[in-house]
Amino acid sequence: MPISDRFGFLKAPITIRFNNGWIKPCPDHASVLASIEEREHRDGYLYPPCISSWSQCLGSADDPVPIPNTTRPAAVFGLMPSHDIHVADFEEGGDFRHEDGALLVHLIAFLYETRLQFDGWKFDGRIRTRVGSFLFREDVAEHFIASVYDRWKTWTPELRRRFITILYMFGRAQSCLWEWERFSQHYMVFDALYAFQLKNGGQKIGGHGKRLIHMCNLFGVAADETMFENFIKLRNALLHEALWDNSTPGEAMGKDPNVDKWLKNFNARLIVAVAGYQNSFSRSKWTHMGWQPFDKRP
């Protein structure tokens, strides 16, 4: 059956077409974008608004009165939608927002290195709004999303759900304030990718170092054994000793202030390869700053 929904907020006014549907900007995209840009911080993030509690007597016509000392950042908050999404042949009785819709929305968020959510649903924490580092043309984005969507539909329901969760957590990790928090969540994403290949009939590998190498060999992703050793050292100390690079988490930055970015870049290449979209990006070096060209799969 045909189904339509809305999500946001994506700054890019892109239109994407795939075999059985499309994604296009909402009619008021430009005006809502202007209001978003008025609120976003100069650091490239949108932060939760502050909220307060108010009091009003039941049945009273008086205006509500603010309760002192109740102002705090909202735990969750919503945004206006930016895009319409339509799928022509969604399975009747299915849960679009947790199935096909979730895959498409979080896949676009992955490509643009932001977080997206359905209209009326909420975000927790801050949202990255600045331009991501993946460099691609719109036709490449369309081909990538359509190809991964087709591949995703061939998987079992459990694998589909796991891949959606991987995409969601990849985006959420970038919302964390501290490098050790971002690193921890990105390592969760790697563990989830390893578990995904196990559930997909892959080989069980003992030891985190061997798992990192195994995933590189299996999916054609560039390996960096020196960086992998650092990942494992940081991960073990953080999870088993509550230490971040031999210090208290949050007290000081680690020796490599970009280590969470390297793990994020590595995971991004694994996600693309696991989805069956092996391209030059998925095989490229991931320990560098700046633009990361994202090309169409041959």
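(the above was protein one; protein two follows)
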Amino acid sequence: VYVTPVVIQSVKQAQEQNSARLLGRALALCNEKH
């Protein structure tokens, strides 16, 4: 399967959004505990 740079870019963006969402959730949990 040939993957275009556009596809790679969109996958990277999706991964960044997911990790940012997870980080935000983790920070929210930490803030609730304190």
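Reviewer note on protein two: The chain has one domain: 1-34.
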